[in-house]
Amino acid sequence: MKNPLPLLARRLGTRPWLMRLAKVIIWSDQRLHRWFRGRVSLVGIAGLPSLRLTTLGRKSGLPRSTNLLYFPFRDGFVLVGSNWGRPRDPGWTYNLRAHPEATVAVRGREIAVTAAPVKGEDYDEMWRRLLEFWPGYEMERLAAGRELPIFLLTRR
Protein backbone atom coordinates (compact mmCIF):
# COMPACT_ATOMS: atom_id res chain seq x y z
CA MET A 1 0.00 0.00 0.00
CA LYS A 2 1.26 3.45 -0.92
CA ASN A 3 2.00 5.90 1.91
CA PRO A 4 -0.90 8.44 2.04
CA LEU A 5 1.05 11.00 4.08
CA PRO A 6 2.83 12.81 1.20
CA LEU A 7 -0.50 13.44 -0.53
CA LEU A 8 -2.04 14.68 2.73
CA ALA A 9 0.99 16.92 3.40
CA ARG A 10 0.77 18.41 -0.10
CA ARG A 11 -2.92 19.18 0.41
CA LEU A 12 -2.32 20.74 3.82
CA GLY A 13 0.58 22.72 2.32
CA THR A 14 -1.88 24.68 0.17
CA ARG A 15 -3.91 25.86 3.19
CA PRO A 16 -3.20 29.43 4.33
CA TRP A 17 -3.63 28.56 8.02
CA LEU A 18 -0.56 26.29 7.79
CA MET A 19 1.70 29.34 7.37
CA ARG A 20 0.44 30.64 10.74
CA LEU A 21 1.80 27.48 12.36
CA ALA A 22 5.33 28.08 11.06
CA LYS A 23 6.88 28.83 14.48
CA VAL A 24 5.41 25.69 16.05
CA ILE A 25 6.42 23.52 13.10
CA ILE A 26 9.98 24.88 13.06
CA TRP A 27 10.31 24.49 16.85
CA SER A 28 9.03 20.88 16.70
CA ASP A 29 11.26 20.02 13.76
CA GLN A 30 14.35 21.35 15.54
CA ARG A 31 13.56 19.22 18.60
CA LEU A 32 13.06 16.09 16.50
CA HIS A 33 16.36 16.74 14.74
CA ARG A 34 18.20 17.06 18.04
CA TRP A 35 16.51 14.07 19.73
CA PHE A 36 17.04 11.72 16.77
CA ARG A 37 20.46 13.05 15.71
CA GLY A 38 19.24 14.22 12.31
CA ARG A 39 17.52 11.02 11.25
CA VAL A 40 13.94 12.22 11.85
CA SER A 41 12.10 15.39 10.79
CA LEU A 42 8.48 16.48 10.54
CA VAL A 43 8.79 16.72 6.77
CA GLY A 44 10.32 13.24 6.71
CA ILE A 45 7.52 11.84 8.87
CA ALA A 46 5.09 13.25 6.30
CA GLY A 47 6.89 11.18 3.67
CA LEU A 48 8.56 14.14 1.96
CA PRO A 49 12.27 14.70 1.34
CA SER A 50 13.95 16.86 3.96
CA LEU A 51 17.49 17.93 4.67
CA ARG A 52 19.43 20.02 7.15
CA LEU A 53 21.31 22.80 5.39
CA THR A 54 24.42 24.19 7.06
CA THR A 55 25.80 27.42 5.62
CA LEU A 56 28.34 29.96 6.83
CA GLY A 57 26.74 33.13 8.13
CA ARG A 58 27.43 35.92 5.67
CA LYS A 59 28.23 38.38 8.48
CA SER A 60 29.38 36.16 11.35
CA GLY A 61 31.17 33.45 9.37
CA LEU A 62 29.71 30.96 11.86
CA PRO A 63 27.85 27.78 10.83
CA ARG A 64 24.08 28.25 10.55
CA SER A 65 21.73 25.28 10.15
CA THR A 66 18.10 24.95 9.16
CA ASN A 67 15.82 22.06 8.24
CA LEU A 68 14.19 22.35 4.82
CA LEU A 69 11.95 20.56 2.38
CA TYR A 70 13.89 19.82 -0.80
CA PHE A 71 13.06 18.75 -4.32
CA PRO A 72 15.29 15.90 -5.52
CA PHE A 73 16.68 16.85 -8.92
CA ARG A 74 19.15 14.69 -10.82
CA ASP A 75 21.90 13.98 -8.29
CA GLY A 76 21.32 17.19 -6.32
CA PHE A 77 18.87 19.13 -4.21
CA VAL A 78 16.62 22.06 -5.08
CA LEU A 79 15.69 24.53 -2.32
CA VAL A 80 13.10 27.30 -2.42
CA GLY A 81 13.41 30.42 -0.25
CA SER A 82 9.72 30.68 0.52
CA ASN A 83 10.15 31.67 4.18
CA TRP A 84 6.59 30.55 4.88
CA GLY A 85 5.15 33.33 2.71
CA ARG A 86 6.91 36.16 4.52
CA PRO A 87 7.93 39.24 2.49
CA ARG A 88 11.67 38.75 3.06
CA ASP A 89 13.93 35.95 1.80
CA PRO A 90 15.01 33.54 4.57
CA GLY A 91 18.44 34.05 6.12
CA TRP A 92 19.92 30.93 4.57
CA THR A 93 19.45 32.40 1.07
CA TYR A 94 21.66 35.38 1.91
CA ASN A 95 24.25 33.01 3.38
CA LEU A 96 24.28 30.82 0.25
CA ARG A 97 24.67 33.84 -1.99
CA ALA A 98 27.69 34.99 0.06
CA HIS A 99 29.16 31.49 0.61
CA PRO A 100 27.86 28.97 -1.96
CA GLU A 101 29.76 26.04 -0.46
CA ALA A 102 27.61 24.36 2.17
CA THR A 103 26.74 21.02 3.70
CA VAL A 104 23.47 19.13 3.71
CA ALA A 105 22.55 16.27 6.00
CA VAL A 106 20.05 13.79 4.61
CA ARG A 107 18.85 11.19 7.12
CA GLY A 108 21.92 12.01 9.22
CA ARG A 109 24.43 11.61 6.32
CA GLU A 110 26.56 14.69 5.57
CA ILE A 111 27.07 15.75 1.93
CA ALA A 112 29.25 18.66 0.76
CA VAL A 113 27.45 20.80 -1.84
CA THR A 114 27.84 23.94 -3.91
CA ALA A 115 24.78 26.15 -4.39
CA ALA A 116 23.86 28.09 -7.51
CA PRO A 117 20.80 30.31 -7.93
CA VAL A 118 18.40 29.20 -10.66
CA LYS A 119 17.64 32.06 -13.06
CA GLY A 120 15.92 32.93 -16.35
CA GLU A 121 14.36 30.16 -18.43
CA ASP A 122 15.81 27.57 -16.04
CA TYR A 123 13.88 29.30 -13.24
CA ASP A 124 10.61 29.10 -15.15
CA GLU A 125 11.08 25.39 -15.91
CA MET A 126 12.14 24.59 -12.34
CA TRP A 127 9.22 26.60 -10.91
CA ARG A 128 6.81 24.48 -12.97
CA ARG A 129 8.40 21.30 -11.62
CA LEU A 130 8.39 22.63 -8.08
CA LEU A 131 4.65 23.41 -8.21
CA GLU A 132 3.97 19.84 -9.30
CA PHE A 133 6.06 18.66 -6.34
CA TRP A 134 4.77 21.16 -3.72
CA PRO A 135 1.71 23.17 -4.86
CA GLY A 136 1.86 25.29 -1.69
CA TYR A 137 4.78 27.27 -3.09
CA GLU A 138 2.36 29.30 -5.21
CA MET A 139 0.35 30.28 -2.13
CA GLU A 140 3.58 31.25 -0.35
CA ARG A 141 4.77 33.29 -3.36
CA LEU A 142 1.49 35.21 -3.46
CA ALA A 143 1.55 35.82 0.30
CA ALA A 144 5.19 36.97 0.17
CA GLY A 145 4.59 39.26 -2.82
CA ARG A 146 8.00 38.40 -4.28
CA GLU A 147 9.66 35.93 -6.59
CA LEU A 148 10.87 33.05 -4.45
CA PRO A 149 14.58 32.33 -4.89
CA ILE A 150 15.46 28.84 -6.07
CA PHE A 151 18.86 27.22 -5.50
CA LEU A 152 20.30 24.08 -7.04
CA LEU A 153 22.74 22.34 -4.74
CA THR A 154 25.17 19.96 -6.43
CA ARG A 155 27.52 17.54 -4.74
CA ARG A 156 31.17 18.55 -4.49
Helix % is 25-40%
Let me know the largest β-sheet.
7 strands, antiparallel
What is the level 1 CATH name?
Mainly Beta
Structural class: alpha+beta
Look up the CATH topology. Pnp Oxidase, Chain A
Order of strands in the sheet with the most strands? 2-1-5-6-7-4-3
Query: How many discrete domains?
Result: 1
Strand content: 25-35%
Parts with pLDDT < 50 across at least 5 consecutive residues: none
Name the average pLDDT: 88
Give the distance, in angstroms, between the N- and C-terminal Cα atoms: 37 Å
Report the radius of gyration as a whole number of Å: 15 Å
Shape: globular
Number of helices in the DSSP assignment? 7
What's the order of the H and E elements? HHHHEEEEHEEHHE
Write the CATH homologous superfamily.
Answer: Electron Transport, Fmn-binding Protein, Chain A
Q: How many β-strands, per DSSP?
A: 7
